[in-house]
Amino acid sequence: MRRKWTNGHRSEKFFAGVILAMVLVWPLGLRASPDPKIIEGARKEGQLIWWNTIAQDQCQILVTEFMKKYPFITASYWRSGTVGVHNKVMLEARSGRYSWDVLSQTNPEYVVEVRQKNLIVPYHSPERAMFSEDLKDKEGYWTSSYALPTGLGYNTKLVRRGEVPRSYDDLLDPRWKGEKISIDNEGNELLVGLIHAWGRDKALQYLARLAVQEPVPGRGNTQRAQLLAIGEFPLAITYTHTVEWSKFQGSPVDWVNLEPVVIKVDSIMLGSKALHPNAGKLFIDFILSQQGQELLQSFRRVTLRTGVEPNPPRLIKGFKRVVLAPEHFQDAPESLKLYKEIFRLP
């Protein structure tokens, strides 16, 4: 006998379908609403000051779009390298001045220090729900806004695709001995990441074996990616997004992920002495929002928000990873010293 559906049954079926659809799309369509009290507080403050390490043209776009969203806030920024930003933060703190509301910093050891000095406070932005647990701290002091993943770049004219190393162990093949692998001469991030992934003994043993390969030390990921492109060496352990950018510009390079991929992140934080704390909270919300992440995506940054993938997506997905949390760098000078000893660097 065919069942007859009453209007009540149809309604129940319809609403069940709606609820199911909402459950399925909710994680991707989440739109957090700022607290009206924060908006009102920011309106009274009227300003926002952001210190960061992002390229100047990108900073300008971000603050301009933020001001379009909140026209009652005048936003400004100051940017430098990671060392420059940190030195200025600490210099001001020692003199009792606090000129910034929001701080973005990529060096995890510097995040450790500003927290130890009580220069940042927790802020649980509603946008944090769209970021994986390993990309934020539980207490709300920092949240990752974009990533800097480390992998293996290679020169496509010097290394055939079938010969490209696909794992850390592949780099120990005798064919790669004798100044064929570029490493960062201050690359203790790799050491710290592998220690947390493999344990101290295995990580140290591996890097000691890598040192036997007589790698080429050099400073800076961008510069080493440029040297890779002109054939100074066939392989480079470096940031994959840097190699991807060089590839995008037409250089004969490509890259692969080595698992576990060691990932450094840019952390965004709220100042404990912020003159404009509510505006600061709105700006952090903005950077972590879909709009902010799409802007970072357009700059070819490695975006981290669920539903906003970098180009190409393999920069951040499809592999095992270890994210370098600030807590991993409680003794950064010691890890750098150890790294230099392993590779016999000055």
How would you describe the overall organization of this protein?
This protein has 346 residues and is of the alpha/beta class. It contains twelve helices and twelve strands. Strands 1, 2, 3, 4, 5, 6, 7, 8, 9, 10, 11 and 12 form a twelve-stranded mixed beta sheet that branches. The model is unreliable at 1-30 (pLDDT under 50).
List keywords for this structure.
alpha/beta; 12 helices
What is this structure, in a nutshell?
This protein has helices at 7-29, 36-45, 56-69, 82-94, 108-116, 188-198, 200-212, 221-229, 240-248, 277-288, 290-298, 332-343, and strands spanning 47-52, 74-79, 102-105, 120-121, 143-155, 181-184, 216-218, 235-239, 253-256, 261-271, 302-303, 321-323.
List the helices and strands and how they pair.
Elements: H1 7-29, H2 36-45, E1 47-52, H3 56-69, E2 74-79, H4 82-94, E3 102-105, H5 108-116, E4 120-121, E5 143-155, E6 181-184, H6 188-198, H7 200-212, E7 216-218, H8 221-229, E8 235-239, H9 240-248, E9 253-256, E10 261-271, H10 277-288, H11 290-298, E11 302-303, E12 321-323, H12 332-343
Parallel strand pairs: 1-2, 1-3, 6-7, 6-8, 10-12
Antiparallel strand pairs: 3-10, 4-10, 5-8, 5-9, 5-10, 5-11
- What can be said about the biggest beta sheet? 12 strands, mixed
Percentage beta strand: 15-25%
Q: Radius of gyration in whole Å, from Cα?
A: 23 Å
Low-confidence regions: 1-30
Annotation field: number of helices: 12
Find the count of extended strands (DSSP E, 2+ residues). 12
Order of helices and strands: HHEHEHEHEEEHHEHEHEEHHEEH
What would you call the quaternary organization?
single chain
By secondary-structure content and strand pairing, the structural class works out as alpha/beta
| Overall 3D form | globular
Instruction: Average the pLDDT over all residues and give the rounded result.
Output: 92
Distance between the termini: 86 Å
- How much helix, percentage-wise, in residues? 40-55%
